[in-house]
From TrEMBL:
InterPro entries: Acetyltransf_17, Acetyltransferase_Eis, Acyl_CoA_acyltransferase, Eis_dom, GNAT_dom, NAcTrfase_Eis, SCP2_sterol-bd_dom_sf. This is UPF0256 protein. The active site is at Y132 (proton donor), F407 (proton acceptor). The gene is eis. Keywords: Acyltransferase, Host cytoplasmic vesicle, Transferase. GO terms for molecular function: aminoglycoside N-acetyltransferase activity. It comes from the Bacteria.
Length: 407
């Protein structure tokens, strides 16, 4: 096989059997998606946003050796503006064809499309931490996995006489959950909004994806919701919170109070924002163990001035920002003036006062990393401590960014 035998094109319906089989192999699934689960995915993506690579070295057998696609998503920026973003997903290359440049080929094709369409950002959730920095992506939102021991969990404060939480009927869930999620998404940097095909897939709750666990149960509150499943692990029943999104601390407290009161459950697991306050709401903080902190969403910036102009800021800054971009050349030197929460940006030849790779800028942009932390790591250069502190303060967010949707 030579590189010229590799043919990249957009997907058609006839590619999907191979896409599903390739995905199951590449991500080590026990079995490929069934027809229902496959239809859910196909409803979320346009075939023209899916690239496939086939090996034509044998004209009688042209196996699919690469696939990559993107969803058209909406992300919330610090300050509340929402932007359209391509969300890269379903990237895989056949084990027989690895490290021959197929991923690079597919990402170059998709990136050129995003640039033509005027995207300022792209996002992804990564299978490994070592793949995407070379393409200018940086880890931008993080999440915390917690395990809560119910026997030791007592909420501080008074128990309300009448719980404001109810189990939702199917009709209530379909009516209220998308609206509650959207209200939450408007408040959080990095939040991904969900369109109807995403909700259809979540509400379908396909048995093949439950892995032997119960269906989803929904708890509703006027300021948020939580969904959870029951898993039996050995002799223990564990409640796995699938998601919780709230727009008020009252809703967060009330929903947790109900979850912590589940009978015949020893332990509860959840994935929450890194600044989730549950442990501080309990009389015994040790009831909550943090079992992991992981990168969730990675961000790539394509248009530095447009990105800077789209978010709001927590402090003032005057700096000459130098950005390097080895993959697509969107770096340069920018005079950045931030005042009253808004940035104005022009290109300049003046000497830089701040310098970093575009992947590092992506990590700082939503507030997921503090600039000072990355300066300690030698990945941000600042001409003087005052500029670093002003940069750090300007880009900090009051709540930790959280994407809330895996894709
Ligand atoms: C957004 C998402 O969908 S994340 C999911 C990614 N997919 C998976 O993890 C499924 C299993 N893995 C795979 O299918 C493949 O190994 C892939 C897609 C990760 C890589 O595909 P390949 O075609 O082998 O990558 P390709 O040859 O184009 O490599 C491009 C560059 O990435 C590097 N690279 C590729 N995979 C890895 C890896 N797992 N770890 C570190 N570096 C990697 C290569 O060394 C190369 O670097 P260079 O261009 O700087 O020399």
């Amino acid at each position: 096989m030579s590189t010229s035998d590799l043919v990249l094109r957009r997907a058609t319906e006839s590619d999907w059997d191979d896409i599903i089989a390739a995905d199951a192999r590449a991500f080590a699934f026990i079995r490929p998606l069934d027809d229902d689960a496959r239809a859910d995915v196909q409803h979320k993506v346009l075939d023209s946003d899916v690239v496939v690579v086939r090996d034509h070295s044998d004209p009688h057998n042209t196996p699919l050796v690469g696939v990559a696609m993107f969803y058209r998503m909406t992300m919330t920026l610090p300050g509340g503006r929402r932007v359209m973003v391509p969300g890269l997903s379903w990237v895989s290359v056949a084990a027989t064809h690895r490290r021959r440049g197929i991923l690079r080929m597919m990402l170059t094709e998709l990136t050129e499309q995003w640039e033509r369409e005027g995207a300022s950002f792209a996002i992804l959730t990564a299978s490994e931490g070592t793949i995407y920095e070379r393409f200018g992506f940086g880890p931008a939102t993080f999440e915390k996995q917690i395990s809560v021991e119910l026997a030791r969990s007592v909420m501080r404060g008074e128990h309300p006489a009448d719980s404001r939480v109810r189990f939702g009927t199917d009709e209530q869930i379909h009516q209220q959950v998308p609206e509650l999620h959207d209200r939450w998404a408007a408040t959080r940097s990095g939040a991904i909004a969900r369109t109807q095909p995403w909700w259809n897939q979540i509400f379908a709750d396909r048995p093949m994806l439950r892995d032997g666990r119960s269906r989803l149960h929904y708890l509703l509150h006027s300021g948020g919701y939580a969904s959870y499943r029951i898993a039996h692990i050995g002799d223990d029943a564990v409640a796995e919170v699938s998601e919780m999104f709230t727009v008020s601390e009252e809703a967060h407290t009330d929903l947790w109070r109900v979850l912590l009161g589940l009978d015949l459950i020893g332990r509860l697991t959840a994935t929450v924002p890194t600044d989730d306050p549950l442990a501080a709401k309990l009389t015994n903080l040790r009831a909550v163990s943090v079992t992991g902190i992981a990168d969730a969403m990675w961000l790539r910036i394509f248009d530095v001035p447009a990105a800077l102009g789209a978010r709001e800021y927590a402090g003032d800054l005057d700096a000459v920002l130098e950005i390097t971009d080895g993959f697509r050349g969107h770096g340069g030197r920018f005079a950045v003036h931030i005042a009253g929460g808004e940035a104005t940006v022009t290109t300049t030849d003046a000497p830089p006062t701040l310098s970093m790779d575009i992947s590092v800028f992506g990590s700082i942009f939503l507030g997921g990393y503090r600039a000072t932390e990355l300066e300690f790591a030698g990945r941000v250069w600042a001409a003087d401590p005052e500029t670093l502190v002003a940069f750090d303060t300007a880009f900090a967010t009051d709540r930790a960014p959280f994407s809330g949707t895996f894709f």
